[in-house]
């Protein structure tokens, strides 16, 4: 019996030693699951600037500010909220070409927690089609309008292989909070611990021209790397759905 026990123990040790050694980042990557809400980076020393509701008039200018500051950001875009997404095709291509992450904020910016599964899929696939037509990728990340994750939404996101992002800091720009007041919110949250994913909107000039440059400087002062949402959650290669996608022949419309 003792011999059998010793043999079993040796076999277990040998099996364990044969297992691949994974870094903490590799363990983090395995935890980024579709249909699960993520509101904060999984790693410290990072800040994931994330903007909703575009593309819009200020998108190109925002890309210039980010690029000048050496920052990468994530754009959660709609199809029709501020006009047809195809009207901003140049800005969409510019953001993607600059290495920023392009993601989905639904087609029409309605509450998807109140929709059935088919309606939710339509909201998502229309954004997918638009981004394939313009830059050749389907996003794997999305942020729901109004941060509404109720009803059939999360189950549908799981079947569509979407990682769901919310936020841990609200800039309040959507609610008439000034850039200066928003800066105080970041200072109160602090730069320690796992990185922040803020809720911001690229459709407000104060967010683009005042808050964003301040955040770039604040990040540098606190030794924070400005990264995409995918990178901040340990999924730098997972920004987009796997596959090769073919653009439809234009002209495109909404």
Question: What characteristics describe this protein?
Answer:
254 residues; 12 strands; 40% helix; globular
Global shape: globular
Average residue pLDDT: 90
Number of strands: 12
Across the major sheet, the strand order is: 6-5-4-11-9
How does the major sheet shape up? 5 strands, parallel
Helix content: 25-40%
Structural class: alpha/beta
Terminal-residue CA separation: 74 Å
Low-confidence stretches: 1-30
The number of distinct helices, counting runs of at least 4 residues, comes to: 9
Tell me the fraction of residues in β-strands, as a range. 5-15%
Order of helices and strands: HHEEEEHEHEHEHEEHEEHEH
Rg over alpha carbons? 21 Å
InterPro entries: Glyco_hydro/deAcase_b/a-brl, NODB_dom
Pfam families: Polysacc_deac_1
GO molecular function, one term: metal ion binding
Cofactor: Co(2+)
Question: Would you write up a description of this structure?
Answer:
With 254 residues, this protein is α/β, with parallel strands linked by helices. Helix content is 40%, strand content 15%. It contains 9 helices and 12 strands. The chain has helices at residues 2-18, 24-30, 59-68, 89-97, 117-135, 153-159, 179-189, 205-221, 229-232; strands spanning 37-38, 40-44, 46-47, 49-52, 73-77, 101-104, 141-142, 163-165, 169-170, 194-196, 198-201, 225-226. Strands 6-5-4-11-9 form a 5-stranded parallel sheet. Strand 4, helix 3 (59-68) and strand 5 (73-77) form a beta-alpha-beta unit. The radius of gyration is 21 Å and the shape is globular.
């Amino acid at each position: 019996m003792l011999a059998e026990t010793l043999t079993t123990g040796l076999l277990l040790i040998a099996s364990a030693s044969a297992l691949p050694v994974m870094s903490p980042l590799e363990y983090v990557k395995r935890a980024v699951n579709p249909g699960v809400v993520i509101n904060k980076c999984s790693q410290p020393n990072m800040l994931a600037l994330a903007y909703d509701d575009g593309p819009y008039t200020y998108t190109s200018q925002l890309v210039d500010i980010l690029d000048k500051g050496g920052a990468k950001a994530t754009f959660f875009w709609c199809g029709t909220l501020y006009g047809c997404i195809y009207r901003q095709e140049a800005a969409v291509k510019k953001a993607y070409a600059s290495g920023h992450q392009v993601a989905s904020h639904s087609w029409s910016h309605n509450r998807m927690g109140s929709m059935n599964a088919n309606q939710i899929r339509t909201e998502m696939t229309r954004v997918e089609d638009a981004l394939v037509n313009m830059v050749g990728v389907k996003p794997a990340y999305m942020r729901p309008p109004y941060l509404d994750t109720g009803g059939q939404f999360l189950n549908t996101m799981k079947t569509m292989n979407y990682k769901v992002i919310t936020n841990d800091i609200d800039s309040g720009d959507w609610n008439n909070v000034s850039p200066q007041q928003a800066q105080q919110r970041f200072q109160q949250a602090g730069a320690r611990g796992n990185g922040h994913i803020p809720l911001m909107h690229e459709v407000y000039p104060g967010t683009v021209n005042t808050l964003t440059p301040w955040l770039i400087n604040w990040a540098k002062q606190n030794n924070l790397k400005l990264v995409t949402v995918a990178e901040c959650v340990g999924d730098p290669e997972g920004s987009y759905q796997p596959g090769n996608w073919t653009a439809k022949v234009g002209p495109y419309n909404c």
